Queue: 2 jobs
Job 1
Amino acid sequence: MNKIAALCKRRGFIYPGSEIYGGLGGTWDYGPLGTELKRNIKNEWWKDVVQLREDIVGVDGSIIMNPKVWAASGHIEAFVDPLVECKICHERLRADHIDQIEEHGKSHKEKPKWTEPRKFNLLVKAYLGILEGRQQEVYLRGEITQGVHVNFRSVVDSTRVKIPFGIAQIGKAFRNEITPGNFTFRSREFEQMEVQYYIRPETKEGEKRFEYWKKFWMDWYTGFGISKNKLRFRDHADGERAHYAKAATDIEYESPWGWSEFMGIHHRGDWDLSRHQEYSGQNMKYQDPETKEEYLPWDIESSAGVDRSLLFFLIDGYTEDKGRIFLKLHPKLAPYKVAVFPLLANKPKLTGLARRIYLDLKTDFMIAWDGRGNIGKRYASQDEIGTPFCVTVDFQSLEDDTVTLRDRDTTKQERVKINGLKKILREKI
Ligand code: GAP
């Protein structure tokens, strides 16, 4: 983990938030490479969930919502973690994070005594309005989900969706986590990508769709290169489930600190729509266009963290092999798809041709240019940030219009025609 965190800082993937002011607990900033990786994850997710399907549409809701939303969703009452405080140093920890409680015990000579666990609400408060003392207390959304449910009626009325259908959203969520940690794994500000999939309220249908989404996501993450043996399903036990869930299964990743939640699939039943119907007084029922039957649909939710996905893609991709370090990122996710260099930077003919190739490829792909150091160092530098292909222009290129194309994972090089390069890369990426 330390190596990955150091690489992230050194190469511009992730920096501590507000670092020049000493940071701010649980916040992180993405540098140029992290920003590309994050956009690629979100774009691929959106493509597979919305663009390539006919049954899912997207929305983009506000971060700040009417506070009644959070009363209706149950978050004001039930979005809580158990908090205990050390009576010696007043450090606050989550009562259910036993390993941290035990670790803390080692930091004092005497055995620490803890306060009784109390419920700590994770919603982050903010204040809206211009009149001092008359500002409205609001919450930054604790899950992006509610932005979908409150728009259920509008989406049904303004589009041609028919049950079963889904609404997807990607956006920021905020939580006053008691113990943010493990790099970006548990942050106070993070991004989620979710599908709320609305179905007929029937037990068999619920089971079928739940299983469908479990498989869909397992295939999605392994399809983008996460090691199969590092992923597993974990069903939530009774008493562990969130207040809205009838059933819940996490996909977990075996991280350096143990099996950890990657994403969750939740059977939310009609919890959200029925509560919003009750609290808003608006009709949230769906009317079947053929039978005219009216009902509150059930929701099978898929909820993944963008930051957590990015972190696990980095951890899983980090490879050390015979002294070589490379990030085995799927080409679709890699920040740069190709790096182009002249074999020698001080030969104008080589540099001129390499620049022309670079500028031509740049119209189709994110491309890196590197004219520093020797070729070995440039390969090592691109390997470390996960660039899947390197194109080198050498003296032979000036004679026969070919370049070398190097593969990050195998380090094998092939000679290819410059005018066929784009086609080859399109097929490989
Ligand atoms: N709408 C359901 C929901 O929010 P959740 O299990 O609380 O469910 C879903 O969160 C996903 O959001 C998690 O699996 C994780 O990937 C991500 N996530 C949750 N809390 C997070 C945090 N503090 N920091 C980073 N990611 C987080």
Job 2
Amino acid sequence: MRVGMLTSGGDCQSLNATMRGVAKSLYHLLGDDVEIIGFIDGYKGLIYSDYKIMKPKDFSGILTLGGTILGTSRQPFKLMRVPDANGLDKVKAMKDNYRRLGLDCLVVLGGNGSQKTSNLLSEEGLNVIGLPKTIDNDLWGTDVTFGFQSAVNLATQTIDCIHTTAASHGRVFIVEVMGHKVGWLTLSAGMAGGADIILIPEIPYDINIVADAIKKREKEGKRFSIIAVAEGAISKEQAEMSKKDYRQYLATREYPSISYEIGAQIGKITGQEIRVAVPGHMQRGGGPCPYDRVLSSRLGAAAGQMIVDGEFGILVGMKNNKIVKVPLSDVAGKLKMVSPDDEIVKQAKLLGISFGDE
Ligand code: F6P
């Protein structure tokens, strides 16, 4: 049996742990009867036939290693049907390479965009298995994605560090958390780090309500406030803009990111000293936390079993701590977002955390 493997899109901490899980289970089940081909830099390697024949030793010692031993790149789904600069039909090239290499299956470790492409390849007749990667936790069909918990740990550590300096100086601090268009990472890290205000894309904020929450804390004698802001957070006015107007606003915004805009506005309204901290790609760095190592190992092992059983066209996910097999066609194009009615949001509000909405 020949199995192709690739890591696609933004990296995260637990990609190697997941590939190791797939490989170990395949070697366990098939011994020498399986060969794994690793494509370099994601779909790019499959398109341009850049690959490496992997050996069992390649998967040793990588459980705790961050990044990806195969490399990754962003190959936008919307450009997959657009020929490259030399007129190459990318989808045809991927299919041709899959067939030429005699693959029985392709394992794609990727997030939303990558799984849209994996679904496309599955619809084109390839045997594909998806594994849910992303620090954003926004992949539909699974409770949790690998990489998320490791990123929560890092974003929380940032908030913890900011706490001590904010308390010493009596400042308002904004910590900007990644997460693309969803607020899972900010919500988790914000709660874990004891943020006073959490702003996420799914719950548009009113800047005056945010400022009121800070003033209230000041009146209560609190010297500092911490605001966890998702990189995709939006105000109520911005939420009402058309997509085109919002894009235009983003393109011409005078601040490097939403946190600086919020910081300037709050500074003006409250007169308080504001600082912004942006941990950025540190949130994707380093090795996987123990939770992710276990999650990745379980997802990888389950994928190995599915390959042997000939089950394809599926994303291997986790629901209620049990492996689920979700058709890629169900996953493609959907985002898993925080709902303002989710229990976790209600409980955060019970703790007195403001979301800037009411
Ligand atoms: O999807 C993971 C993610 O880290 C998002 O949270 C963030 O918006 C984006 O990738 C950053 O992308 P890049 O690494 O291409 O700058």
